[in-house]
Here is the input.
Amino acid sequence: MPTRSNNQRSLAPVLETLENRTMLSGSVLPLDAGKAQFLDADGDLVKIVLTGPGSGEITFTQAQPADAAQLDIHPQSPACTLSITVTGKQKTTAIEYIMIDGQLKSFKAPGVALGGELDMDASVLTTMTLGDVVDGADLNLTNGGTKVAKLTLRHIGEGTQIMAPTVPLSLTAADWAQGGFLDCLSATAIKVTGDMTAAIRAEISTEQPETKVVSIVSLTVGGVYSGDVYGTGSIGSISARSLGAGSIGADSLGSLKTTGLKANAKKGILGDAGDVGSMMNLRGDDVADGKNVLGSAKIAGDLTAGAWVQGNAGTVSMKNLRASLQIDGKANVKVADALSLSSPLGGSIGSLSLGSGKITSGKESLTLKNASQLFATGDDVYQTATLADKMLTDGTSTFLATSRLFPSGSATVTGHTTAANTSAITNYSALGETRYSMTWANSDGQLYQTHWFLQSELAAMDFNFEDGLSLPTALTLKQKYTESSAVAGTIGMDFSDGYVSAIISAATATANTTILGHEEVTVPAGTYLAVKLEYDVTIAGNMSFSYGGDQYFGKFQVKSKATVWLTPDDGVIKVVSSYTDGGTITGQGGASDKGSIVVERM
Here is the structure.
């Protein structure tokens, strides 16, 4: 890099009037009364004006007309300003190095392309305007003051660094190529019209604990932003068409927004879904209790990188959840994905952990009071086979209403009534106890019911489903699924002079299953986020039995309507079931019974 020298001034004559001069290779053109002008390599006229006391010189490494290799300015007052104008065909000129040895209030050079490096004291700087900053060129701003330095640049090249660790600033640019870095004390606003691929670090701090400090007021990128944003304090807002690979780290973030872009083939515009691919960690430091660590997030596309909000959040909305989103506190989350308590069969594509709040997903809306984790399925389905793998590790599972829910629980029987209208079985007597059980099995990921037992006041019905009543491996929310099976078993009735066991024939069981969604349910064992489903079974057929030396024939029907809450890790949490059962004996009459059973995990 060319160096400054007090002897350089003697290499060029002092100009009595401001005029174009042809300089020799390696020559220096001094500022005369704060002014100088020259023709650059394109023949454009470049004028440099320093207002206020001071001096300066322009160094050339080639004979004129030529671009300046280095500009040295020595302002002697904090009120000094520097301007560079370019007139001609190109209206731009290149300067390799700009060295400001002193304080400037403003520096305006919109037609200057910086090719190498700019160094200056920014203690009183209010505005600085440059044209392009070419690949690898750097800006070094030192001795930041209390006022915000407003930087306006055009195209910022690849690998460019703006180092201003003690300077509060704002930045406006057309775009910024990859590999760049902005280091500042704080930023009131960073606005880039096109794409930006540069890291940002704002390390403002305070010695007072629990005092909120703002590192970046706003970051607005018209195109895609791919880079790391780190603030020791809070960030007011981040907005971009989409966020590519990178990260966001701060105490808090007021708002996050991606807009996406609609494709237009006629205009050659490629679409942008508006995804967020930047990992995010909002630490929650110095955020008052009850306040939001994330104010809001409105993502036009998918969340494709992990995000951790260590506290409360406002409304967080996105199209699909394709990564881990963990919000430790309260939030309102909206996502197009269906969510499930178990990961999809093809592997996890996204998960949501929420301290409390409201979740709207697909066709479902639920309110949570406790920390919970849900998985994005990618489709509006619930994977029952995965539930089965976790529920039925031993292959079968049975819960009994009269003894213990698998593996532990309690049951209550309510609303029980019995009516008998028979002639042949006038000696019928109530069994005196209500028992209820279902047995499920899991074979190669297929969940199905194999056994159903009900002992009511009327009869003890023991049925085996020969074909198994299978649940589909994928259940769509609020869609009814119907399955049927042949039934074998017995119906036992108690008479004063003996117990009768009726044999059933031509019997069929039909089960209707409907996934209602997710719901928090509280039982004696605690509060669980569970899958809620409706499971209705109708069993009907013929029966025959011998009594008092005579053979009797008839028909029977049992209807059970159950609402079941279950989780992958704990199995059945609660069952609320109502039933009706009855039978008729040919030429003799019939009897019926109904009741309800509530089973809860202890």
User: Anything to note?
Assistant: The chain is about 0% helix and 60% strand.
